[in-house]
Amino acid sequence: MIPFNLPLVEGGEQKYLRKVLKNKKLSGDGLFSQKCGLLLEKKLNCKKAMLTPSGTAALEMAAILIDIQKGDEVIMPSYTFTSTANAFALQGAKIVFIDIRPDTMNIDEGLIEKAITKKTKAIVPVHYGGVACEMKKILKIAKKYHLFVIEDAAQGILAKYENKYLGTIGDIGCLSFHETKNITCGEGGAIMINNPKLIERAEIIQEKGTNRKKFFQGKIDKYTWVDIGSSYLLSELNAAYLFGQLKIAKKITNKRLKNWCLYFKRLKSLSQKGLLELPLIPADCQHNGHIFFVKTKNLLERSRLIDYLKKNNIMAIFHYIPLHSSLAGKKFGRFAGKDVWTTKESQRILRLPMYYHLKENDIKKITKAIERFYQK
């Protein structure tokens, strides 16, 4: 069976894990947490990067950081993972879902302004598959209405929009290092603070609402509870594993892009015949090879293709059920405007196996199986 995903283990991670065990410092905010934060700041050119237990935790921190209150509204696409909405719903926000663009599966920037009300506090663009949303237009709208922009860049590590790294463009960016992501530590994430005014409070929120960070920096003689917060620190073991992969992040990305391009090349003829659709990468975007998907004609064809691939020992999956159609989505949110593309496109998309250790022969086997399916 060719699996859909295999977590990346490149070898160097073990060396750093041994150092943690030798140092006997396992809790968060240790040496490797600091090393990873500095490395992310340097690589991505962001003002402050802080490791979190997950991408979900990074989003939750962002919601607290911009002071989301009950009754506030937050605009985001319905085509995203539950964490994007949960983070803001937990603070009492009403989630306002809007339609996506069928070409990139990202939020339709042209619909955002119509969804804004007096209660709107933030826009949350989700960079699906590491392909950037139209950030220039989103930032312009946010500036006009004095809104925060929180980038859900969970899938976007080292991807760019107009030569800026995803997660470093809005007020706050959130990354994920879950085992399904390009760079991983099993569970983990990072919050990137691009607005300098938010840095000090972010450190307090991460440390359970205390000014403990200032204490360890020698700025105060004792620390105390000063704000709301939670335990948003990543363990040192995870941070050490992550550091081993961040050191070779470019190599990892290049390998995934190579696999992505091979998929595209081998399936191009089926696309030209109109049998399926391939991903589109806008000219101002530099993606990171996180996802390779195809789009079938409809839900029935996708189901048949999934079954056919499974019989040929290939695991392919689809992605999100639109949040606005879910039980919680109806309870905590509403859909603004018409659902022209979100549901329709979500029923057509099929994700093919994509991971660092995927071999060229594996991709050839997968694409040949897809060709046989359409020949039948």
Verbal overview:
The chain is of the alpha/beta class and 376 residues long. It has two domains: 13-247, 3-Layer(aba) Sandwich (Aspartate Aminotransferase, domain 2); 250-375, Alpha-Beta Complex (Aspartate Aminotransferase, domain 1). The chain is built from 14 helices and 13 strands. It has helices spanning 13-23, 31-44, 55-65, 82-89, 112-115, 135-145, 199-206, 212-216, 236-246, 249-272, 299-311, 327-332, 342-346, 360-375; strands spanning 48-52, 73-77, 94-98, 120-123, 148-152, 160-161, 164-165, 172-176, 189-193, 285-286, 293-295, 333-335, 349-351. The strands form three sheets. Strands 1-9-8-5-4-2-3-12 form an eight-stranded mixed sheet, with helices on both faces. α2 runs parallel beside α9 and α10 runs parallel beside α14 (360-375). The longest helix is centred in the last third of the chain and has 24 residues, at 249-272. The protein is globular.
